[in-house]
Amino acid sequence: MDSLPIRDRRALLLAVMVAAFCFGSILTVDVPLIDLDEGRHAAIAQEMVERGDYVTPSLLGRPFFDKPILFFWMQAASLQVFGMHEVAVRLPGLLCGFLGALTTGLLGWRLFGRSAGLLAGLFHATMILPTALAQAAVHDVALVPWTNLALLALWESGIAPERRLRWRWTIAAGVLAGVSILTKGLIGVAFVGLTYGLFLIITRRVDRTAFAQAFVILLLAAFVAAPWYVAMSLRNPEYAYYYFVERHLLGFASDTQRHGERPWWYYVPILLGGCLPWTTYLPACLRDWWTSSAKGGATTTQAGPGEHSSDARRAARQLVWLWLVACFAFLTLAHSKMPTYMLPVFPAVSLLAADLWTRFLQRQLAPPVERLVHLAFWVTSVPALLLVPGILFATAELADVQFAAWQWGLAIGCSLLAAVPLWLWRRGLFTRTLTFDLGLLGVQFFVVITYVLPSIAQDHSARRIAAWLNERETLPRQVLFLEERVGSVLFYLRPDFREQLQAERLKRVNLWEFTTEVDAAADVLVIIPEREREKLSASIDLSIPPQATVDRFRIYTADTLLSREQKNIPRVLAD
Predict the structure, then answer these.
(1) Strands 62-63 and 553-557
(2) pTM score, two decimals?
(3) How many CB atoms lie within 10 A of CB 519?
């Protein structure tokens, strides 16, 4: 069995470049902004630039309270520098995604050594959900680097040999916690505090110094974040109550908030599927932890250059397991649930898998654990033979997309490449297997992003609706989206049209508002998504030809719909 010497680390650097490339591959293709969140966040950042208001995020002039300011600032800066297009919108998310992988690698290096740090960064860069969400404008992607670095600062503070150095790391942790509050509210502080607090309790390191450090960290975090939150609350007095009480407190404790009715097991498939392919190694990590604990943690291996002692690694594993389990339990107990909330927890899986793989390559694992590593590899690698063709087939069937013969050939080529790691593994060339696997993941991501994502995005974007509106000489008196929230259409409208817009001129209406409040006028456009057509046809006569059909939308004028007799509205609303 081969180990992980310097020459093999150089080979892994090739995989680093491939993993880094997969973060930026979306910049090479024409992918419209995806509704709802990506298009809406882009429109908010665009409005921030055009109105010159960098305190209150707003959409159509109305304050937007759901997200803090930092990621909007990043997007606004990108739009100012690079212009009003998709690349500028997505660049901050890609940068934060890359920083998430980089800081995971840095944390792995400090916790487990250089080899594990390199693998941890690569593993995070090739996980399905973090890499996919880095392609879109998602605020949670920006939270990952700050939580990683805050935990790193606390870890360094705990092992610092001098008091002065310990307090420098404590100050760094406080500043990073404040930046995380500007990024996504209190959730980052909760993750870091819960993880490291439990670590101190379990390792019996709670003392007066720990309480003093916690106080300083919270004070510094408030000092960093408070200026914007105070300015926001002075302009919008209702903001503080909404964001901290309704969104945070009630979102955690009750199901009255948005996304508040998810089942308790909601995050289980997200963790298992979102961390693929590295989540399959968690059983081996758990068995390794159990085996190590049963033996009292004793090992006979000696740390090599750049590597950590057994005691340090054991404490690091304890920290990372607490990170994964405690934060997963915290999110599970919360009533409000979303897939993106899990992103700051995913680096823990990367770190555990990287530590396991490093010791597997160095023959430091017990035989039962090694067998689980072999099993995990085969469970992951065999389905990979059909991964890309399967994605193309599913997209063709579900999204009604036609792929060319050469695209199918490219997918089959990915399948043939996926057989190479199986051959290398059978020969016992495990480092080369891992290197090839990481590079192959980058290639597969590139193929999916380049040839599959544009088709899916086109079906979930309003770019062509905006293009259709932009061809008109004047903007209609009202543009109403029936049972569809306003998203990317606002970003793509002509600048002179955007200047005319107010909240009442471009908005979402439900069926009741449409039938009772909307004027039956020819200069009021009604845009109906295809997926709502069957439900709405029970109350509105949609058999009449639309004025236009654009992608997944049908466009009518209000007078053609409201002039017809409306039936069954009470029954439909009751349903």
Answers:
(1) unpaired
(2) 0.88
(3) 12
